[in-house]
Amino acid sequence: MAQILKGRMKLLTKESWEYNPNTKANIDLKKEAQLRKESIKFMMSLGVESLHLPLSTVQKAIVIFQRFCQNVSFKNFDRFLYGTVSILLMAKDDYHQRRLEDTIKSFLIVAQKMRLQQFNKYVDPNRLETKEQQEAYLQKLGPKAITMHHENFQTAEIEILQMSGYDLVVEVTSKYLDIFKKKYNGITDKIVFQDLIQLAEENTNTIYMSNLCLYFHPMILTIVAIQAAAEKLNCNLPNIQIESNEQKQEDDDFGDIDIPAQQVEWWQMFSKRIQKEDINDCMQYYQDFIKLLN
Questions:
Q1: Which pLDDT tens digit goes with each residue over 124-181?
Q2: pTM of the full predicted structure?
Q3: 187/84 Cα distance (integer angstroms)
Q4: Pick from 108, 136, 163: which residue ends a domain?
Q5: Are 84 and 158 in contact (CB under 8 A)?
Q6: Mean pLDDT, rounded, of the chain
Q7: Are residues 184 and 126 in the same domain?
Q8: Number of structural domains in the chain
Q9: Which GO terms describe its biological process (predicted)?
Q10: Distance (Å, rounded) from C-alpha 152 to C-alpha 144?
């Protein structure tokens, strides 16, 4: 990995990739990929649908969660609980704080819905869809369940913060996908562009199910999501005109560079410091992860 993009967010090195607590706990790569997928689906459902948080906040929480998973085997913690606490931490950091008790209730409901879906051959997975069903379920659990989880959440928060070194600086792909939408809109057919964006967003969600967000800058992740979408749609992304002041503004995070107005490959709209090697590496790991999910 070239890793020329440094930015503000701390990324892990290729060498650290070799340490995998799940392998040591006899969890194979396919099983690990499924556990990550289920965990992130839970976090997206809880954060975006139940707590109504911005996607960018939930993506940041996913990165914090993935950092924790990089050091602790899935066998040794409740991934739904720690995923919820990661969301709470980033919601607070992004000034979207949610009441703890409301979050615990949402956590209990969404976690149970995920469990029901796993056993949908035996029970109705839609039994917690209505507000009345959810209230009945919480009433059945009783107030002690809420009280107990107050302490569990506090313990998990301390462990996550300690494991991350109290570093909550995270950048995510949503910012860069918005840049692509703004600069590329109108260059390709409108219908094709809409399909491209929708598929790129789906690819981004899949990328966050893996631990790629710990090793590659979100610019690279965004490029891979878009490129994979373009390849699936058999869509050619033409070069784009970048003005010098426009390119410099996008490169402010990585140091001053002077670039004349020019035609560049589409992915260079984000930064001239991006290396094709990083894109290829990330794409290969992404494709490997997709195979593990199938």
A1: 656 788 889 999 999 999 999 899 999 999 999 999 999 988 999 999 999 999 999 9
A2: 0.87
A3: 40
A4: 163
A5: no
A6: 87
A7: no
A8: 2
A9: regulation of transcription by RNA polymerase II
A10: 12
Q: Rounded to whole angstroms, how far apart are CA atoms 232 and 239?
A: 19
Mean of pLDDT values over 85-102? 93
pLDDT in tens, 213-241: 999 999 999 999 999 999 999 988 888 87
Same domain, 222 and 243: yes
Question: For residue 2, is it within any domain?
Answer: no
Give the number of other CB atoms < 10 A from CB of residue 238: 10
Range of the domain at 235: 174-293
* Domain-located, residue 213: yes
Least confident of 109-123, 165-179, 187-201, 244-258: 244-258
Question: Cα dist. 102→39, 52, 286 in Å?
Answer: 20, 12, 35
Question: In whole angstroms, what is the distance from residue 130 CA to residue 293 CA?
Answer: 31
- Looking at the fold, whether 59 and 132 belong to one and the same domain comes out as yes
Q: Which residues contact 25 (CB under 8 A, 6 or more apart)?
A: 73, 74, 75, 76
Q: Are residues 231 and 186 in the same domain?
A: yes
All residues at 6 or more sequence positions from 171 whose CB lies less than 8 Å from its CB, including other chains: 7, 8, 9, 217, 218
Q: Is residue 3 part of a domain?
A: no
Mark whether 218 and 117 lie in a shared domain. Answer: no
Q: Pick the closest to residue 175 from 63, 88, 275, 59 (CA basis).
A: 59
Give alpha helix (H) positions in the chain: 14-17, 21-24, 29-44, 55-69, 79-93, 100-118, 131-141, 143-163, 174-184, 190-207, 218-232, 244-250, 276-293
CATH number at residue 37: 1.10.472.10
